Amino acid sequence: MSDIEMRALPAGAVELHDARSRRRWTVQLEPFEIGVFAVTEEQISELLGITAEHPDRPAVDLSWQRAIRVCNAASEWEGLDPVYRFDGAEVQWDTTADGYRLPTEAEWEYACRAGSRAPHYGPLAEVAWTAEDGVRHAQRVGERMPNLNGLFDTLGNVWEWCWDLLDPARYGDYRVFRGGGFADDAWSVRAAVRRGGDPRTAQDDLGFRLARGGFDRADAAQGWSLAADEERALLAGPLPSGWTPRR
Q: pTM of the predicted model, to two decimals?
């Protein structure tokens, strides 16, 4: 398979926020690795045996569930322990495994910001493909300037799936994606913007970036925990205006 170029990032901290609950918190991260580029069509082609029409573009039209399976396929290709286990539609993360996986939200934002506290890690026209460029599809990876971690296209070009649930009280099993895409204006292409979608759906401006790193604690790692997901799915008190609870 084409080389998956990874960047090792040191331990550090990142501040996250939840707009609905108006909560801010700091996540302490252990060292981990993350892809220098989004996964490309060429890499998907080699893993899954399908044709790549545009080998150097980010792979898009991949659901979260498909991205999870690609992570395991990449692990098996390189002889690494697969990270994800399946029980029907339910996916479990073996946090001790050393294979490829999706980054957590905290890992993604830490990697994207590369020490910056600004919405963009550089002038947007130099680091990201956005609606201002007038393009109609994802662009070849690595054409814009990288951030200080040496990562390309963490802002713009395509959104990127993360492991985390978006807001389980309101959206059930919707998963987070980050970074903005080629059709989005500057307001959406910011390091802190959170969006999400059904894990079974795919979009032409949504791909993913690989991460690696195993951890000692079960059911919790890098700002995510199963217990926190279960707690966030509970809704006490009156419903916020304009929405109904998950079904």
A: 0.94
